[in-house]
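Report of the visiting student (M.T.), summer placement. My assignment was to run the structure pipeline on a short list of targets and document each run. The first record concerns MOSC domain-containing protein.
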Amino acid sequence: MNPVVEAVSSHPRHAFSKINRDRVRLVAGLGVEGDAHAGATVRHRSRVARDPTRPNLRQVHLIPGELHDELRGRGFRVSAGDMGENVTTRGLDLLSLPTGTRLRLGEEALLEVTGLRNPCVQIDRFRKGMMAAVLDRDPAGNLVRRAGIMAIVLHSGEVRPGDAIEVELPAPPHRPLVPV
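After the run finished, the structure tokens were exported:
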């Protein structure tokens, strides 16, 4: 299956879940137009409290729709936008992408993957026990965060459900994703 955009979501206020839209506009250097997390500098409240001048490496949050499928199979009521993501994907292993991967969504929008979303207690406030469901351990015992990835917008464009996703890996050596 070729990777596609399953859903797009945004919210003008700082809310955990985002509202599904028929399209969103990604704006270079800022993020999702009209979304509370759009901006050249950090917008997530915890990061603003630490240093509001830091660059915003979390302009766009992407989650694979397959994670929603898995969570529903484990009894959690969850759908696109519920976990705060702007873009829900299908057919793309987001967590295996290296830092610096470029993702073309639709005809114009171009993202650069910056790192992992670090799950926080808000996930358990949304659905009790879901935090543990999005965390895992690899064979070496290292923590694996499965709540999606973050990206910045390199080129503006509209993105809609059903849009194709093209993947361009960075030149080796590839750097694994770490929380941003």
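The radius of gyration is 15 Å. The mean pLDDT is 96. I thank the supervising group for their guidance throughout the placement.
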